[in-house]
Amino acid sequence: MDKPMVGRVLTVNVGRARKVAYTSAPSGETGIGKVPVEGPVRVADPGPKGEGGGGLAGDAVCDRRHHGGSDQAVYAFAREELDHWERELGRTLPNGCFGENLTTRGVDVDGALLGERWRIGPSLVLEVSDARVPCRTFAGRLGEPGWVRRFTGRGAPGAYLRVVVPGEVRAGDRVEVLHRPDHDVTVALAFRAATTRRELLPRILAAGGAAHPELRAAARKYAAGLDRVPAPARGVGPDA
Predict the structure, then answer these.
(1) Residue 68: left if φ>0, alpha if ψ -120 to 50, beta else—which one?
(2) What is d(CA 193, CA 186) in angstroms, rounded to the nearest whole number?
(3) Residue from 95, 232, 81 nearest 158 by CA
(4) CA distance 158 to 78
(5) Distance separating alpha carbons of residues 149 and 170, to the nearest angstrom
(6) Tell me: the pLDDT tens digits for 46-64?
(7) 179 contact partners, CB below 8 Å, separation of at least 6
């Protein structure tokens, strides 16, 4: 294993449910508008998708058909990527504005391997599970023309994580890699396989149970020759 990565959590961000016109959630509400909070925030496994919401206490997940649950308990995004998009879009992008729970610095979020484990602060342990796929709500939140296409083209989506050991997280906590699996399935590769390069789907199988169950199922289906339609695997589009 290479020298362990040690980065930082710049801010911990949570969102409250609010009514918007740009979500397809049955309630018409979204919690994507996340803002930094002070003090420690409790992080725990929220339970199965469809039942559990987000892993951070006080964070609203309003459309549980597509978001939240154990395999999408926490969303991390690199400040370095927000800085890129600030330059690209010519506007200020505060921490949390992409809907991320953890805004990090010095963490190779998109190069992380599925199944990679991070210790954050003294006790919290998270495991990388999936890439974030942009959706209608994200596009509406940013209000940028062609946002889903532009974000997808960048190929740096940020990572979803599951909770291995519950604990607390706060701004300034260290992020240290405890374990890197023996495969090459990164968050960036998983994103490409799920969106623009479906021929990569069979490579997801190398990650085994570390991959999000829905992505793993798509990979198995493609590898078996049952799904070769040249379209995104997991919901890139207005109704994602």
Answers:
(1) left
(2) 11
(3) 81
(4) 7
(5) 33
(6) 999 988 899 999 999 988 8
(7) 115, 116, 117
Rounded to whole angstroms, how far apart are CA atoms 185 and 111? 9
Residue with tokens 């597509």: 66
What is the share, in percent, of the chain residues with pLDDT greater than 90? 82
Residue 218: band (very low, low, confident or very high) from pLDDT cuts 50, 70, 90: very high
pLDDT-derived band at 122, boundaries 50, 70, 90: very high
Confidence of residue 5 (pLDDT cuts 50, 70, 90): low
Q: Output the 3-class SS for the chain.
A: CCCCCEEEEEEEEEECCEECCCCCCCCCEECCCEEECCCCEEECCCCCECCECCCECCCCCCCCCCCCCHHHCEEEEEHHHHHHHHHHHCCCCCCCCCCCCEEEECCCCCCCECCCEEEECCCEEEEEEEECCCCHHHHHHHCCCCHHHHHHHHCCCCEEEEEEECEEECCCCEEEEEECCCCCCEHHHHHHHHCCCHHHHHHHHHHHHHCCHHHHHHHHHHHCCCCCCCCCCCCCCCCC
Q: What's the CA dihedral at 59, 148, 226, 187 to 10 degrees? A: -60
